[in-house]
Amino acid sequence: MLRHFLELLRASHRMILASAAAAGLVALVLSVLLLNARPLYEASVTVSMEPSEEELRFNRSFMGVSQFNPATIIAQSHIERLLSRPVAERALELLTAELGQIPAKPPSLLSALSTRVWQVWNTLNYGYSVQLDDQQQMLADLQNAISVEIVEGSYILNIAVSYDNAAIAAQAANALARAYVEEARDGFRRDAAEIAATIATAEDEAQRRLSEHRQQRQALATELGVADPVAERAILLQAREDARAALRTAEAELSGEERRLATLRQSLATQADGEIARGIRESLATGQAGLDRLTELRAQRQQGLAELAGSLAGLDEAQTRLSALDEQIAGVETDLAQLQALRVASELSSRARLSQVMIINPATVPLYPRFPKVAVNTVVAVLVGAILALVPVLARDALGSQLRTALDVEQLGARALPSLSRRRIARGRRLGPGEVDRLVRRIAADRGGWHDRVLLVTGFLPQDDIHRLARVLDGAAGSDGTPIQAVPLLPLTAIEDWTALPDQPLLVALRSGELGRSELASMQETAARGQRPEPYYLVVL
To answer: What top-level branch of life does the organism fall under (predicted)?
Structure first.
């Protein structure tokens, strides 16, 4: 099969070479023309995007859930923002301020032709064509000239700008990067300002509610006559403990006095001495007075203890009413503290986000244009031209019924000899010893020997070509030194009955693609009817 395709290439090499040469020449001319008229220089700038805490949390939650890289998703969001019109407009403003004027392409025949083609194209598609001013045209050119690539697995973007002026390409790339950085920072500032305003409003509201609750508590405390329930409760509890201790002391003294008086009464009842009895009676009178005094003291202390219990009950009720307000005040104070912490965190985050996007490698003026590359374009065009020329060759071979190679002849059961090229036949260069040996072995194997080496030459060729082919074969000797005697005949179409020719090996030459399969099959049938050995077919490529 490889030999078949090689012979196809040899048969169509002129067309393939012509197509490749034509395509290469066209590419060469166009590349040189574009190189001199409108070369494209590409300048690139590298921008780093440090992820925020929110983006890092997104990465951690997203990792392992999907096949997509979360860094790529976040970077793609930055790319869409970078390619937006506001960023391009800001970049154009920076570039205009740097150059002192709007950069415009110098008028040329190529630019005029390109503009005219687009006008016709727009008119054919939409019915009208809009003429852009210099600023709008430069803005459109800038947006079309931008290309952004992501460094895989990172937060780094390579921003490239292509323009026909190397210096403007570098300036435009740097202006675009600066515009994106400024736009991102302005967006961060706007977001931070909105967040700060929201937090400030919430803080003011919390301060207002805190002030209201404190005023309500102060008014209630004044109404209840309680300044500090906790301290007052502690004082009352201590006073109650002291009162209880004093009551216990009074009761103990009263009990002791009662026992002493009872003892004196018993002694008085058993005392016979009048003088001693009078002393006991005086002691009883004095003790009774002390007992009355202790009884009154106990009653006073019991009343004081009851008053303290009432005060504690009233204080508990007041503390219950004040605790509700205290809880509200504590809740508002907690909210206010959280808002203050959130404000501090927001300020720190805003300062950090302002440095998230930065230029790490500014663009420099390119030394060589990115397009066109004359040598590369020419080589590619040559290859494409050759491939395009192969398409009809292979299509004719696959879909046609013509005989184009020796393999086509063999597939019909006919005897095929190795093909020869037209150039070799035209030059008349004889076969080499190796080629003759293969030819002799083939014919000798079919005929049981070929001693006289006589070969009749005819075919579907002009008479001159038949004679040239005979000269290529005639006198060619193999390794045994016996030469071939090639006898040229008339073209096969001029021979009335080729089956009546002498019983010598008959070589029928045919050009690639000029004889159909049905015609060869008919010749095979004619040879079989004439009881003549089948001829040998040689395809001329």
So the answer is: Bacteria
Q: Dump strand ranges (E) for 12-113.
A: 41-49
81-95, 200-214, 359-373: lowest mean pLDDT where?
Answer: 200-214
Which contacts qualify for 437-442: CB closer than 8 Å, 24 or more apart?
Answer: 437/478, 437/479, 439/478, 439/484, 440/478, 442/415, 442/417, 442/536
pLDDT at residue 513, as a whole number: 85
Q: Which residue has the tokens 């008119």?
A: 123
What is the sign, positive or negative, of the torsion defined by CA atoms of 519, 524, 528, 531?
positive
The pTM score is 0.62
| Calpha distance 436→507 (Å, rounded) | 14
Buried residues in 162-187 as b, exposed as e (16+ CB within 10 A): bbbbbebbbbbbbbbbbbbbebbbee
List all residues 6 or more positions away from 475 whose beta carbon is below 8 Å from its beta carbon.
430, 483, 484, 486
Query: In whole angstroms, what is the distance from residue 498 CA to residue 517 CA?
Result: 19
Say if residues 43 and 161 touch (Cβ distance below 8 Å).
yes
Note the pLDDT of residue 69. 61
Higher pLDDT, 496 or 351: 496
- Residue 312 half-sphere exposure toward CB, CA atoms < 13 A: 15
CATH 1.10.287 applies to domain 225-353: yes
